[in-house]
């Protein structure tokens, strides 16, 4: 029987496996003394461990394959997951010998993913109000990674062109710029209150580009195409995912996705734990 392309495409997306990596290997130093005896992933919010909160929410949105990297008190996490109803959906990536950071952890876990579906990357200590089915639909077939961003004041900004393609990064406190584009590294610019990238007055070091560029705060949430794994081959075992994106954005489609009403709570700090339960009730 012949099915029109649009219908076949719809059915492929409808039936597709949704996979996610939950970054749970961190030491949780900002949550001490709690994490002296407990891994960050099992720190409770309203009596429910962070890992459970995230997996339950993602399952409700159709995710059915989870890769969790472990290091600090790894066996506690493994034992806990083994007692949960979602245990058959979870695969562990063991980093007990060495913490590999966000990029290295993803690289090591490559074999645990299907290669035909984007991978949602999510920190275990992040709570948010994201509709992940919406975010998944925004990841187009020709895009290699989609980074969820917002207009939020921070010290470190990702820089995008008018088409929301990643071009660089800037630390506004130190002035450090990272980019594969020499013109951006040489350009003397600032970021104004509207988060637009502006040439500084009297800038004579390099000519300002004619296009407009924008600065956004990264949420730590992103969608990663498995075809990017081949570009990680030359990277060491341990590296950050943002450094990876910045090194390949000139030859890959790394794009930003703005969510105007984005709410994110970093529960990796003691002073945010008291706000976490209220945050969940409002999400």
Reconstruct the topology from this structure:
Blueprint: H1 5-15, E1 19-23, E2 44-45, E3 48-49, H2 50-60, E4 65-70, H3 74-82, E5 90-94, H4 101-108, E6 119-123, E7 126-128, H5 132-138, E8 145-150, E9 156-160, E10 166-171, E11 177-178, H6 182-186, E12 189-191, E13 197-199, E14 214-224, H7 241-248, E15 254-258, E16 264-266, H8 270-282
Helix pairs in contact: 4-7
Explain what this protein looks like in three dimensions.
The protein is of the alpha/beta class and 283 residues long. It has helices at 5-15, 50-60, 74-82, 101-108, 132-138, 182-186, 241-248, 270-282; strands at residues 19-23, 44-45, 48-49, 65-70, 90-94, 119-123, 126-128, 145-150, 156-160, 166-171, 177-178, 189-191, 197-199, 214-224, 254-258, 264-266. Strands 1, 4, 5, 6, 8, 9, 10, 11, 14 and 15 form a 10-stranded mixed beta sheet that branches. A two-stranded antiparallel ribbon has the order 2-3. Strand 4, helix 3 and strand 5 (90-94) form a beta-alpha-beta unit. Helix 4 (101-108) crosses helix 7 (241-248). The longest helix has 13 residues, at 270-282. Mean pLDDT is 90; it is low at 1-15.
Distance between the termini: 44 Å
Secondary-structure element pattern, one letter each: HEEEHEHEHEEHEEEEHEEEHEEH
How is the main sheet built?
Answer: 10 strands, mixed
Portion in helices: 25-40%
Which structural class do the helices and strands define? alpha/beta
Radius of gyration: 20 Å
Describe the structure concisely.
This protein has helices at residues 5-15, 50-60, 74-82, 101-108, 132-138, 182-186, 241-248, 270-282; strands at 19-23, 44-45, 48-49, 65-70, 90-94, 119-123, 126-128, 145-150, 156-160, 166-171, 177-178, 189-191, 197-199, 214-224, 254-258, 264-266. The protein has 283 residues and is α/β, with parallel strands linked by helices.
């Amino acid at each position: 029987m012949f099915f029109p392309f649009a219908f076949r495409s719809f059915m492929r997306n409808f039936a597709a496996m949704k996979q996610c990596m939950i970054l749970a290997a961190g030491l949780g130093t900002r949550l001490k003394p709690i994490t002296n005896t407990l891994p960050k992933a099992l720190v409770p919010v309203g009596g429910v461990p962070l890992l459970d909160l995230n997996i339950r929410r993602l399952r409700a949105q159709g995710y059915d394959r989870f890769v969790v990297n472990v290091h600090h008190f790894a066996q506690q996490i493994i034992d806990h997951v083994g007692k949960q109803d979602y245990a058959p959906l979870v695969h562990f990536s063991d980093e007990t010998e060495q913490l590999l950071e966000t990029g290295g952890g993803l690289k090591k876990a490559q074999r645990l993913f299907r290669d035909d579906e984007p991978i949602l990357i999510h920190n275990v200590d992040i709570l948010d109000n994201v509709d992940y089915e919406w975010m998944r639909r925004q990841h187009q077939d020709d895009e290699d990674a989609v980074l969820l961003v917002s207009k939020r004041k921070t010290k470190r900004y990702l820089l995008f062109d008018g088409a929301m393609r990643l071009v660089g990064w800037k630390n506004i406190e130190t002035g450090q710029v990272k980019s594969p584009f020499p013109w951006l590294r040489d350009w003397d610019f600032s970021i104004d209150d509207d988060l637009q990238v502006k040439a500084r007055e009297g800038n004579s070091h390099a000519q300002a580009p004619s296009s407009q560029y924008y600065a956004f705060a990264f949420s730590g949430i992103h969608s990663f195409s498995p075809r990017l794994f081949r570009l990680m081959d030359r990277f060491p075992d341990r590296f950050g995912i943002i450094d990876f994106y910045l090194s390949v954005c000139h030859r890959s489609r790394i794009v930003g996705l703005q969510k105007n009403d984005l709410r994110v709570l970093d529960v990796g700090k003691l002073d945010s734990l008291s706000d976490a339960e209220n945050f969940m009730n409002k999400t």
